[in-house]
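Listing 4. Sequential folding, example run.
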Amino acid sequence: MAESPDSRSLVSASSQLNLMEIEAIDDKEFDIPQVDTPPTLESILNEPEDEDEPFILEDTCLLNTENIDTHSCETSSLASSDSGDRTHLKRRRKAMETNATVHGSVLRCNVLKGISAQIVSAADKVDAGLPTAITVSSVIAVGTSHGLALVFDQNQALRLCLGTTATGAEYGAVSALSINHDCSRLLCGFAKGQITMWDLANGKLLRTITDAHPPGTAILHVKFTDNPTLAVCNDSGGSVFELSFRRVMGMRTCESRCLFSGSKGEVCCVEPLHAGPELKEHPITQYSLLAMASLTKILLIGLKPSLKVWMTFPYGKTDPGSIPLLAWHFVAVQKAVNPVLAFCRGDTIHFLLVKKDDSGTIHVIKQRQLQLNCDLISLSWINPRTLVLMDSTEKLRVVDRPSQDELETVDVAELQLVYNSSHFKSLATGGNVSQALALVGEKACYQSVCSYAGQIIYLGTKSVHIMTLRNWRERVDHLLKQEKFMEALSLAWSFHEGTAKAVLAYCKGYRWTTKATSSNYHFKNCLFADPAKRKGVVADKMVEILLQYVDCSLKKCPEQGKIQVMEQHFQDMVPVMVNYCLLLQRTFLPGRTRGTRFLSLRDLLFNQIYPRLVENSVAKGVFLESLEPYILSERIGCLTAPVMRDLLSYFQENGMMESVEGCLVHMDITNLDIQQVVQMCWDNQLYDAMIYVFNSGMNDYISPMEKLLQVIGPPLRDEKPLTDEHVVMGNKLLVYISCCLAGRAYPLGDIPEDLVPQVKNQVFEFLICLHTVEAEQEEEVYPYIRTLLHFDTREFLNVLALTFEDFKNDKQALEYQQRIVDILLKVMVDNSDFTPSQVGCLFTFLARQLAKPDNTLFVNRKLFDQVLEFLCSPDDDSRHTERQQVLLELLQVGGVVQFDEGRLLDLAEKAEFYQICEFMYDKKHHFDKIVDCYLKDPLRKEELFNYIHNILSMPGYSPEEKQCVWVKTLQHVKDLVSINSSKAAELVAVHFADEVQSIIATLQDDYLIFQFLKCLLDPSSREGLNPKAVLKLGPDLHELLVDLMCQLSPQQVTAFLKTSQDYRLEEAIQITEKHKLHEPTAYLLEKKGDVQGAFEVLLQTLKGKLHKLALEGSQADRPNIEEEETGDEVQSPLQRVEEALRDIIALCQRSSHGLNQQQREALWFPLLEAMMSPQKLLKGPDAKYTSDALKELTMKVLNSMSSFITPPAIIQRILQDPVYGKGKLAEIQGLILGMLETFNYEQTLLETTTNLLNSDLHWSLSHLRKAVSRGLHPKQDHCNICLQQYKRRQESEEEIIIFSCGHLYHCLCLQRKESGILSERLHSWSCYKCTSSQGSRPADRPSVEISRSRSTSLAQTKVSSAHRGIVAEAHRRKMLTEATLDVQQTQAWDQLRSIYRGPSRLAILTELTHSHGNERAGLSNPTHPGTGSIYHSENFQLKLSPPPLVEE
């Protein structure tokens, strides 16, 4: 009977490592340096097995496949069940769920029907019981709850039934199974602690071991090692024992040795390292490694040659209910294959790499861990890169270890997994296990999961399931069944490129077997180690998928509806097809014959896929549009003729002409109608495409130039403006000519090498032809060159210059070069059609060519003289700058050698070409004459300062040259100051510091001297200047500047006097008095110390302005509306009075602090009298405005002087004044009330501040009282000294003291420890435990130091027993009543106050009063808000923030 693909053997062929796994290992994960040459498979391992080859160990096949359920487990896994608890059988079955990702379905699940049926049958017919444990090798052994072991062969036939139900009644259920490496022995562990060994060849019982471990404990694990005489077992007491099998004199014995005692931590999982036959010589195997997992850590030990602990690794913080898991596997890392231990408890998997270096040292290296979001109950390797995990919700998770990607999740809740809970609880021996081990046992399923050679077997209560990796074809087909074509293509491409995950082993070549069906299956599904063969197999499959995808997309296209829906449908599919076709375009496919065939893009994309899509017009359009980006990126360079015609027609019909041009220049157009395409390009202005078609389709490089010149030539000859289209055509023409002459194709690529000389010659001949083909009689000679020169002279000459760069020893090319130059001279010289700029470009071009060392051109020198005359023509003032720039460029490129320098300078001076003169003088090192050039050039005068500075300060100039420039600068210093006085002053300060007096004498003009000295001496004018430009000059120059400033800018005198300190006071006072500048005079007198003199000067100034104000009457101080509207800054008389008053008040305030009361009155009262006296002259209604303004100013004086003069003296002086003394009280009522208002405000402010401070103090004290009187909660219920428990209902009367740190003590215990320090009528306690931790006893240091300890209490609380006496209660109340703050509480109070204290209200109010200290006038006269004080508002209130809240 033929074997189906899904029913291969139980174990797929590979415990061996394959090439893909070696190449894809992440080196960073293992922290291994890079190597130049990766290792090959042959250098590490033997030849790998084929993918689905039946696993053969010792040449015996495991199982027949006839009874394997071929139904794939996409629908799959089953609710778990504990074999000892039948209530689990009633669990509700869950729906199957498979989480397919881009990796496809990775796992294939099969049910072993034969074994499953016989397990159920044995339970019913022979009372074998439910299955409890399973193990697999060349056979499968299943243990039952009634003590039997059922052994099945590769055909799923029951081969042996080991044990009897009677034995099972004595030993209990089979709790653990193990088969040795050659499948000759079987170890059975039982729930009551016995261990039996069976011969699998004949079913004979070889040993019964009853004393290997302590009695009364169940066997949790029994494991053979690779040594056939050595095994290990783990019992429910948490201990691990080594079992050594011996045969002496025909007697079989077993010696037991304890490896780990459960008293040191219970071990619940053990896993020895097993190596396959190909790894028997591995250096690690000689140590017989054993991994043990306890409840707290992992232990890695070596059993050989002697017992040794290699490593311990703690789990860290984990869930107590999580079970420890272990799994070994050999992993290839570059040049070495080493074992890796995976272990976990909970949701984090750790990896340990064990390796032996060249020196023989063993290293155990921790690798990158894997973090999941689930609690794991099973951990198995399925290949060196892939783990299969089961979580507590019974979901299988396939994880790729290097990338840590979760490839698939499969729900196996319906599998009814067997749990080993009863054995971990040791129910058969009385349940004498720890609570921790029993808790772990709730999820233990160690004996229900067995991995072997790339497959994993799960034991259910009624069935056995086997999980294997699907081969690549199955995974792709699984997606195709769901019509997920894009995912299938993506997955297939990952196989094609070797980037897929969870891949079965590669096969190195064809492997023929005896059965035809088996060989065909192997051939179809094998992935080859050879990349070319692998890609060929996968590419063949991808072609099939693409064709299916096309048919499906056409079939599922919506026949009716909006066109946008149909377009979107195909836009989602067609580009994917095109992309994968292009990816496969160079892939070899294995044919059905012995040969190979080349996958042609034209065949697949244009002959198979496109004809199918043409049936739908929308699909056809989407397909053609999707080709454009690939054509532009040159991934598609050749289309079939039908597709090319359809593409051009489609783009043209839809107005996508830019796309047509872009595609044409990237394609082979030899199979198109050239004339038709050219006409289409010309009609639609596709000039790039037209040129490309001419060049590549017909090898014609001249016709495009003819067609373009025919268009742009006429408007240039007729001197008509060019349109945008003409400009585009001309620019393309210049670029095209440049490409042709440089050997490059237009618009991209290169001209074939054999055509380059021919193309150059054709282009040159075309350009220099005398006339066009259809020339008219009036046509000028050399029309093509003339047209290009008129279009853009500079760019055309640049094209020629680039071309001439390539001319070396080519004689013909040099002849063309000379001929073109001659033609250019003939066309442009003596031709009025060209501007000076164009002629200058020509001779600049010629000068560059002539300046080359290998120049072969000949140009008549008279032509250069002629051009010089033309550019320097003094009769023509038009384009002066343009002519000068052209001539300068000509000289800079080497044209100066073509002219007579003397004549050139004469012509340049006459034409006022100062830059030309500068160029020539610079060449001759006449730098002093360049100064004259700058002075004469109106556009470049400002640049002269930098030039002079550079000459005088930079190296590279001789002292004689610098001296000439220095002298020339002094000669023209007056001109320099006139140009820019600031830069001139900076230049003088840096380079002419000793010549200041002579420079001033040279300037002569007072204004120039003033500007020069101001920039030189005034600090405010030096901002941004060179720091070296600050000079320290004598006082005579400063006084000269003051004198000139008094004449020319008097408003700046005071500011200068304040910033400068280099003048003499007496001389400066004389100067300011001479010019009658009162404010500067007053400042100087005050600076001298003559305050009274300064006051008299300012007072006289104020009186004069008051007198003018009184004379001008009421009209003088009214605001002038016209002046305000025009922005005139002319001050009114009242404004001048206010300014003068502000200055004199400021003087009095500055001076009053250092004077006595009499001296203060001598200052302030004359000022007050000066303000009062003019008011008697202002009478009548017309003077009311001025009178009110003066009274307001008088109030300002009163408020200012009230800080220095007592109020009675001020009131007395007011009453003595004629203005106020002889009138009624109403006349002085305003002044008096204003002073009283100020007093009332200040009194209110003082009272409010006092109340706020009292409120803050009360708030702080109340919160402190709450804090210190709050109840305390003890951390323990026993005294921290005697350790006796405090019983709340105890009858004895004893005092308990609790500290804020939570420690509790008996009062007597504290007294014995001398922690209580007796003060006056109060005990001050400190926590004994906290103070002891500080390094000294509390009684050994003062109480002040104790109170500073961080752990001492903030408050002590005495707690009495519930039945205390009345006397003791009264004593307690007395103690609390008399309590005061001790040192600790005082410190706590300070800390609390500093934490909760808000901003000082007094500080805020003080700041407010200071900020408005200059506006005190408003405080006394609230009826005049014009002073600007905030307190003048009627709605003004003190807005004070409340105290901050403390958290309870």
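-- end of first protein; second protein begins --
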Amino acid sequence: MEKLERSLFRLEQGFELQFRLGPTLQGKEVQVYTNYPAKDHKFDRLKFHSLDWVYPNGQEDDCDKYCRLDLIVAGSYQYYFSCGDKEKVSGGYIVVDPVLRVGANNDILPLDCISSQTYLAKCLGPLDKWLDRVRVAKETGYNMIHFTPLQKLGVSSCYSLADQLELNPNFSLEGKHYTWRDVGNLVETVRKDWNMLCITDVVYNQTAADSEWIDLHPECGYNLVNSPYLKPAWLLDRALWHLSCEVADGKYAEQGLPALIQHEQHINALQGILWQQVFSKLRLWEFLQVSVDEAVEQFRQLLQAGSLGVTSRSSTDCRQQLKMVQDPQHRRFGNTVDMESALDTFAPHRSPSDIQECCNCFRRRLEELNSELYKEMNCHAEQATNCIVGNVVYERLAEQGPKLGPVTRKYPLCPRYFTFPFEEMTFEEEMHLMEQKDKACHFLAHDGSVTGNNPLRNLAESGSEVYLRRELVCESDTIKLRYGERPEDCPYLWAHMNKYTEITAKLFCGVRLVNCHSTPVHVAEAMLAAARAIRPDLYVIADLCTGSQLTDNVFVNRLGITSLVRDARSATGSQEEGGWLSWFGKEPVGAFFQPSLRPLIPAVTHTMFMDGTLNDHSPIQKRSVYDFLPSSALVSMACCATGSTRGYDELLPNQISLVKEDHLYSCWNPEVQKCDQVNLKTGIMAGKMALNKLHQELAAEGFTQVYVEQLDEDVVTVTRHCPSSHQSVLAVLRRAVKNPEGHHHTDNVPPLFIPGQIEEVVLEARTIVRDINSDRRSDININSLPEYTAEIQEHIQLKDSKVVKKAAMVSKHSGVGQEILFKKFKPGCIIIFRVTLESRSREQLGALRRHLIQFSPQYQTGSLAEHSTPAVLTKPLMTIMSRLTLADMNMLLYRCDAEEREDGGGCYDIPSWLSLHYGGLQGLMSVLAEIRPKNELGHSLCDNLRGGDWMMDFISNRLLAKGGAVGEVGHWFQAMFSYLKHMPRYLVPCYFDAIIQGAYTTALEAVFKQMSSFIQNGSSLVKQLALGSVQMYGVGHCLTLPTISPHLKDVPHCLSEITCQDNQCCVSLAAGLPHFCVGVFRSWGRDTFIALRGLMLLTGRHLEARNIILAFAGTLRYGLIPNLLGPDSYLRYNCRDAVWWWMQCIQEFCTLVPDGVSILKCPVSRMFPTNVSDPQPAGAWDQPLYDVVQEVMQRHMQGIHFRENNAGPQLDHNMTDEGFNVEAGVDQSTGFVYGGSRFNCGTWMDKMGESERAQNKGIPATPRDGSAVELVGLCKSTVRWLVKLHNIGHFPHAAVTIRRGGQTYSVSYVEWDHKIQENFEKNFYISHDPHDPEEKHPQLVHKRGIYKDSFGASSPWCDYQLRPNFPIAMVVAPELFTVEKAWESLDVAERKLLGPLGMKTLDPDDMVYCGVYDNNLDNDKFNQAKGFNYHQGPEWLWPMGYFLRAKLYFAKKMGKETYDKTVNLVKNILSHHAVHLERSPWKGLPGLTNENGQHCPFSCKSQASSLAAILEVLYDV
């Protein structure tokens, strides 16, 4: 069960979100809850409601049911689910993006179109001049303006707000007072007239230190009254202030610490003074310690007044048990001890004379505790000393530091952590103030941050020691706000900030959360909820500095942050910036087309990529003036929101100070540039306007794919690609990290190959020096570098380019394109090309998209009609597919490598990777399904497709070779692939996938149309399992089924490739892939009929099922059907159970198929009319099926004894000579079918020992001789059925006759049926009565309340082994079982044998149990070597089907409540099979797993019996 609080799931409005059950939840009572508002309800983040389940196929199937949300409201929403009686099991968040609208017509502004410019509000001057100053953003192509806070500011930073509710008075003029309404009017003018949006900053974690309201409401900050745990930190802060004053006054100069700290000796002196004059005198450890004398005296009094007799504990227990009680006022020696724990630990146990001894022990323990607390405080003091010294070194000595000079009261030794709003006084006087609440409440903690701190942790709350340890990077002009957990904890602050939020939300379309990581998340949640109540589509951005994407996701999820700010200049170089572009981009170029219904995968937060922020130094200070333009180009090519800061485009040489800046921004003047005005000739503004315009066009026109390539150390290309039109815009830019005016650089730039045809140069730009008076400076406005400007050319032809030397059309393996040679492409240059496909590629691609529309309407855009369409493409693919039989579909979709090689081919091999699992489409789909959602274009399959046409030719040629309807599909692929071969190779993988995916889904649709209503109306799991019918049944190169009677109608024929004659071509079953699918090991009698009901009858393939039944009927010999089906010499009649599975299938055919009993009259061509006959040709000896059935019953009642033909090592090199003797019959006293010996194994548990080393060669691991329980059940089922058939006139035989001692006896089926019924539980059930008179071997019983695995085995202990075979008998002959006994035995099987996918083949308590099968392992272990434990523990899947069906049958007999619980159990178990099917590249279920569901490498990857058995369970449900 996933916990997804740190995973980001982000969706746009208009999506439908579905919640579906994972495998661990299926079959359980699950309910999904969300706080997404129900229809016609307002959002309340604390109010959750449940979602209704939707059943798409009308059945309560957990595989496919879902609940849904139609996402039409922006914000962050929480969901969770309950399971059973667990109210909240897991959950997560959904973030729905807002829809932004601009202009008088409320046009949508997509998030990726955003180009934002940040303005430092205090540099805008009076409000009446704002439009002139912000017009710069409009004229340079921005569509969003971001303002820093507009509120009244404190004494310093623009983020330090003195009053959150008051507009900054500096925006008003003398005689003209502006209000928030005026700001709102301006914002609306900008939105409607300029098509621009405005957002602003909100600050929730702090207020200015000079805020008047905080003096009136000091409870809104962290002070010594509401946060008394800060007292030690406050004392230290005051002591440091007084030390600083004394250092400034020169009092420590003689001790080596002058006011001007200049070298390491001064630092060493400071460390000594801190320790000796500050920490030692403050005795801060006393705030942690206990008053020992007072505690001991209290303890003594309690002992004297209390009862005796409690035993004292060891000293180790004392340390663990003694509990400290924190003094809520945090006074010196104020902590106490929990006296209950003290009495429990130290109470005497002999006499009152022990009281003193106990008190002494108690005292010693308290002194130990105090000593430990002393050490703890000393650790804090050491860290504080390190931090203080480190701060002094940075501020006064470090090269990169501010070098503050001498210590003064203005620039103290270290920053103050708390306010002190009183006159100067002595330290001793200040200490008295600490205990006066009316004074102490005004000692408020400043805000700040700690590098590397957990951003979800509040630095000022109890438990955090950063103020004491002096780890805070303090903002001494601010006060940290204390909200508490809920509004009731600080009503004024919550109300104040809520009003602040509402004012902001009414005016602005979005906010930037300042200090988001320092704001309590629950506070920001509440405030943003209030903002969204006013403006539902609120745009929220934040700059998170957590250093962790998962931690970022916590903030994004809980707050519904739309975009995270990323600063390009914080990257270490072009390569990292390029990596960011790929990261922020939606898709790589050539990305796969995703289906409309797809899994929701964790996303990356939407980004606002900035080329500069207010906190940055100017690029000139780090790089060069020539780097402004290429940096901006790199950012503008990102597929996300972009942003910049006012001043960047004007080439400001210095960073604007957030604290000291007192100049104003220049106004816009398009005509003449004065020193206090700007226009497109200023700086790179012309280039930025073109870049912003391009950025917005690319997003609006769907250029969602991004590719970044580093051509050279300073040359980068960025491609934006449109997946529908396949136009590209490619930017080439050369960075100028080092100033080219003073640094040598080469003019050699690598040639650039651009696939396709260049339509135009969208933009060519460079920074140049112009002849202008650079000494002009404005005293009022912020000054730029007027001597630099951007020289640009827009929308020109290649021939007019100043940096392109040559552009030649060339043909490369990757396609036709243009090779660009550059000239004078110097640092600081950019060139941007618009590229289209060359004309032929464009035509071919348009035609291909037109043909793909039949699969999805997403291909409509960019589709083109063609002049001449291949004939095979003039009709829908479904028309072609509908002509294919299910046998043809086996060829189209599946066939593993062994099957392909038998036909002379093989599966496609991808060099440097693997071969595909199938020659058909499923082989490709299994790989593509893995790489498509992740757009894994670097996968070897994609490399192979880009490298050549080999895979496409393989697919079409393979099908063309088959001719007929399959060949027509091959022609279709050939025609579709011909389009692919004429387009750029980078597009081949995505369109190849589109073709394959479309053809595959069409084929599946055609498959299901040929199947039963159970499959057509079934769940996705039912359909997946049903595909096993197509996967496993096919017509091979070598015919594996015997020829059936020529007198039968509707038998399929085909032309033999070997004899060129018209032969029958009935499908045969591959028992398992890839091991049992060709030659003599393809068709197994047992596996064929275990699987036939599920894969043939339930899927509606009745005619093919009939043919298989009749083909095997023709092979009957000795009263058995073959275990292995092949040429005459390979027919082995060495299994006792296959014939009974065959009989059961005839019964099922008669029951499930309309007029199914007619099969009994079908002619059977007997290959061996007698036991000694030579093989006869088809039609030479026909008899009706009912006579063949009668022969089986007759021969078993008479008794079967024969030796296998061709017996010896040439037939089976492991079997002993005695093992070739086959015996079977019916016990006349019980009616039980029996057979076998200790030398062979005639049931499905047929492992023969192979290891000479372990001496198990020739010894059956599981002989199961005697009466195997499932065979008794199958026999009973058959006999019961024959009685019924005879009674209604469909079976002419009422009895069997046998000869004994020269006499003939008749045994009626009624008598036989009664005899089995009468004797079954008497002989198979192991009762709880240890004295049960029916029990022949009570000493062998080790489990009771179960059914034996066999009866009458040559090794009696084998009868008593717990195995998963008795549920088979329960399913086919439930009448044999008493309901209560059956239910109890199934419960034992569930507890002991049930695995994740299969059933353990032996009780884990059995001495020979071994759950891991390794057929290659040859050691000395008899029970393990060479896979001897094949059926002695490994978990087989097909018995799982019978176990679950038995559970369902008897659960219904137990009552509704039990049945409902069982159905849920079955659903939960089957969910594991659904997951395996979904994830398996074979799209099948294995034959077995090792213990506890572990993968078994020796198992078939897909087993027919496994698929069939699970499908049968779903049919029963």
